[in-house]
Specification:
This protein is of the alpha+beta class. The protein folds into 2 domains: 10-51 and 108-183 and 296-350, FAD/NAD(P)-binding domain; 76-105 and 185-291, D-Amino Acid Oxidase, Chain A, domain 2. Helices cover 33% and strands 26% of the residues.
């Protein structure tokens, strides 16, 4: 990483944010010989929630070239998922859909730093602890001012570029400037509370529980259970287990942070099955975190010299682990659009429009899958979603259909599939109902 080097005055592409979206788009562009500078306001590794990856992500890792690094890191391979939703227990196994490469449970601080280092190895200039402040999107060379926190004294500077890619995550650098960030309907507005436990038992694909020490020998599943108006995740990693609670924002509005942590721990103790997994586990004091404004989208995503990708563009309920997948997908299509625009600047508005449509397609797909119903004010274009469904591979759509059947949010998603004229058969037959979960 470049800690003390001087930040250049000009580059072809400036990427703001060093999460999976920013690192991936920087790596893809640098591989094509594009002069890329990446600014991240924090220093890696940094804490970040979102530790479950579905097997779809490997094709994007192959494209960026990060696959060997991910494989060599030795993250926990997961077999699938088990949900207890409204008292009904279901299991899904990725292998039954033909996936030969595993899904993963990853420590996101390690995973994100790995991707950032890979971007630098491809030729991107990476500067940490440098925060973008404002963008002047003039047509020729946009200008971005920044604050440099790398030394003992704050520094300030400006960098000119041909394109800005905002991958700043939920802080949504450009959306804040545009005032384009919108929250979804309040009925579907959630926040997350999470923390970490040592020595928690975990659930494997056979429905049995195993001690934490076996996580490297027996593949776990992501375990999800619903409660009242929310749901809980349990994700076993190499040294700790991530346990998170997703609730409607209105439930937590009157609580301070201490009250939310107390509510979080009490809810986990009352949750069927989960209470037994955590019975002998040690809660790591100080690990409690939260994320508000859970589901949102931006009305402005791409223009002739800017792109908003990943969580800076939108975020939906993470029940099907689409967050990092969204970041990889956005990064790939944005890298393509920017490369083509650099070759022929006269078509850059057209490339931006096409890219925005694709980003909105994926958001709408994830939104309808994760949250079920949506209205016209929630940033979803149903026709774009149907087109996307026709374009993705049969096995990926089949898996998503099956996964959606594991909660009570699937009616709208299945209707969109039918409206798209698709007939993937009955993937629900590969979602196994379990009469009893053996913990």
């Amino acid at each position: 990483m470049i800690f003390n080097a001087e930040i250049p005055k000009r580059c072809d592409v400036l990427v703001v944010g060093g999460g999976p979206a920013g690192s991936s788009v920087a790596a893809l562009l640098a591989k094509q010989g594009v002069d890329v500078v990446l600014l991240d306001k924090v220093s890696h590794p940094r804490p970040q929630v979102g530790e479950s990856l579905i097997p779809h992500f490997w094709k994007y890792a192959d494209h960026t070239g990060a696959t060997p690094l991910i494989e060599n890191e030795g993250f926990v391979a997961k077999a699938g998922g088990i949900t207890v939703w409204n008292g009904k227990i279901h299991r899904i196994a990725f292998a039954e859909f033909g996936f030969t490469r595993p899904a993963l449970h990853v420590e996101r601080d390690v995973f994100d730093e790995l991707l950032l280092k890979h971007a630098e190895s491809q030729g991107a200039q990476v500067f940490q602890q440098v925060a973008a402040n404002a963008a002047d999107l003039r047509p020729s060379f946009p200008k971005v001012s920044y604050t440099d926190r790398r030394g003992s004294d704050l520094g300030a500077g400006r960098i000119d570029c041909r394109y800005i890619i905002d991958a700043s995550g939920p802080s949504a650098f450009l959306a804040g400037q545009f005032k384009s960030k919108r929250l979804v309907d309040s009925r579907m507005r959630f926040l997350s509370l999470w923390g970490y436990f040592k020595n928690s038992r975990f659930v494997a694909a056979d429905g049995r529980s195993y001690p934490a020490a076996d996580v490297g020998k027996t593949r776990p599943v992501t375990f999800v259970t619903s409660f009242e108006d929310g749901w809980i995740w349990h994700i076993a990693m190499r040294k700790v287990t991530s346990v998170g609670l997703v609730i409607n924002t209105d439930r937590a509005r009157a609580m301070d942070k201490a009250g939310r942590e107390q509510f979080y721990l009490e809810t986990l103790r009352r949750a069927p099955y989960l209470d037994r997994l955590l019975e002998s586990a040690e809660y790591l004091e100080g690990s409690f975190s939260e994320r508000p404004d859970y589901s949102y989208y931006s009305t402005t995503l791409c223009g002739e010299n800017f792109y908003c990708i990943g969580d800076s563009a939108s975020f939906v309920d993470p029940i099907y682990s689409h967050g990092v997948l969204n970041a990889f997908y956005n990064a790939n299509i944005t890298a393509l659009a920017v490369c083509e625009s650099l070759k022929d600047p006269t078509r850059r508005v057209r490339h931006a429009q096409l890219c925005e449509n694709r980003i909105r397609q994926f958001y709408g797909f994830s939104r309808s899958l994760a949250l079920g119903e949506f209205g016209g004010s929630d940033g979803v274009d149903a026709e774009l979603v149907r087109r996307f469904m026709r374009q993705i591979s049969h096995v990926e759509l089949e898996l998503m259909l099956a996964a959606s059947s594991m909660s009570d949010r699937s009616e709208n998603f299945h209707r969109l599939v039918a409206d798209a004229g698709l007939d993937p058969g009955s993937p629900q037959t590969r979602v196994h109902f379990m009469e009893e979960l053996l913990l």
